[in-house]
């Protein structure tokens, strides 16, 4: 892990990463407490999109948070690894750093999953959010280092169709082929085969289990191609926005057209889900790129940038540091005088102190990277 000065970056990618991470580090909780404090049926329906996953089939904005981060990991590769290649670094040198980052992210994921509790191998959840980010990152980085964009583009439908074939044709004992229920799909069946019961997130399987890592590579590759296009294309900026948004809309449409044959299910990362989430990610990137890098409307974007430039720090900090308890040390009196606002004080204070810590790192040019 290192501390390094602020490099030249595409502002829209940093801001989009920060916007995405905001919901992970407590933005969802803050919105939930606001809705509970001032109930409103219309607002509650809207807030559900930003605070809750679909139980199984379907899609809400909150289901896009995880794949959006993986998409951004892919989109930054032409700027991070690409810059090192342009500076003359060898693929062997870069590969060492890629492997080191994979190990760090996996280790951080195990820490969050309970490794310090020392409850034994049979109770340690081996897969998780950061582990999938690590897998998607190393796969996309290797593909970027050793293939051309045409190959990368061809790999996306190849991966998605191959995963669909596995889900549709590999039999699960006790279920007909092509079953997509929690117990009857092959991805969760593989989880139950290779993992111990105490290592599973749910009795029926793990939403970040080994087989569903395969389509997550396609998510990262969609981001990789978007980042390559933004960096290397000579198209006018306005045309870049239109193309990103157009491809995003096409992927969204494809995903929902696919849905009757292969349901959109985040918890097993179905190929149709990759299309829907990837399409939305492209549309969001087009929007942020248009606002921040084309029109250069920067007001308010500093909040997203502060989070986005220290994304892993924000994620780990929110998981380990009790910012809500710290906040209540300062807001205890307000919460006592206005008990109806206690939960709101806790969620707002937690977000405030999280942002304060990240702002301090940003002002000191301290960016912790793995």
From TrEMBL:
Q: Which InterPro entries match?
A: DUF5009
* TM segment ranges: 64-82, 124-146, 153-172, 214-232, 244-262, 268-290, 302-323, 343-362
Example GO molecular function? acyltransferase activity
Domain DUF5009: residue ranges? 12-111
Keywords assigned by UniProt, alphabetized: Acyltransferase, Membrane, Transferase, Transmembrane, Transmembrane helix
Its protein name is: Putative acyltransferase
Species this chain originates from: Armatimonas rosea
């Amino acid at each position: 892990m290192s501390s390094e000065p602020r490099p030249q970056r595409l502002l829209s990618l940093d801001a989009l990463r920060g916007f995405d991470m905001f919901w992970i580090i407590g933005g969802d909780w803050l919105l939930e407490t606001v809705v509970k404090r001032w109930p409103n049926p219309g607002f509650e329906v809207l807030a559900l999109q930003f605070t809750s996953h679909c139980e199984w089939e379907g899609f809400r904005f909150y289901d896009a948070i995880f794949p959006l981060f993986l998409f951004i990991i892919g989109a930054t590769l032409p700027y991070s690894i690409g810059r090192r290649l342009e500076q003359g670094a060898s693929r062997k040198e870069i590969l060492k750093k890629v492997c080191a980052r994979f190990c760090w992210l996996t280790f951080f994921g195990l820490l969050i999953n309970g490794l310090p509790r020392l409850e034994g191998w049979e109770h340690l959840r081996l897969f998780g959010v950061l582990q999938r980010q690590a897998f998607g990152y190393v796969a996309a980085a290797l593909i970027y280092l050793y293939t051309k964009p045409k190959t990368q583009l061809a790999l996306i439908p190849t991966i998605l169709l191959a995963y669909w074939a596995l889900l549709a044709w590999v039999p699960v004992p006790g279920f007909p082929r092509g079953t997509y229920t929690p117990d009857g799909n092959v991805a969760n069946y593989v989880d139950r085969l290779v993992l111990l019961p105490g290592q599973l997130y749910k009795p029926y399987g793990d939403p970040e289990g080994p087989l569903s890592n395969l389509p997550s590579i396609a998510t990262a590759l969609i981001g990789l191609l978007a980042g390559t296009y933004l960096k290397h294309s000579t198209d006018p900026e306005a045309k870049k926005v239109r193309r990103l948004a157009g491809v995003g809309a096409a992927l969204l449409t494809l995903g929902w057209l696919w849905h009757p044959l292969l349901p959109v299910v985040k918890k097993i990362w179905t190929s149709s889900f990759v299309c829907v989430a990837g399409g939305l990610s492209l549309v969001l990137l087009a929007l942020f790129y248009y606002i921040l890098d084309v029109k250069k409307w920067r007001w308010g974007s500093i909040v997203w940038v502060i989070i986005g430039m220290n994304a892993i720090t924000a994620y780990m900090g929110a998981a380990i540091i009790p910012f809500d308890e710290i906040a209540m040390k300062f807001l205890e009196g307000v919460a006592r005088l206005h008990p109806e606002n206690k939960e709101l004080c806790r969620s707002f204070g937690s977000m405030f102190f999280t942002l304060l810590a990240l702002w301090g790192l940003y002002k000191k040019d301290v960016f912790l990277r793995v």
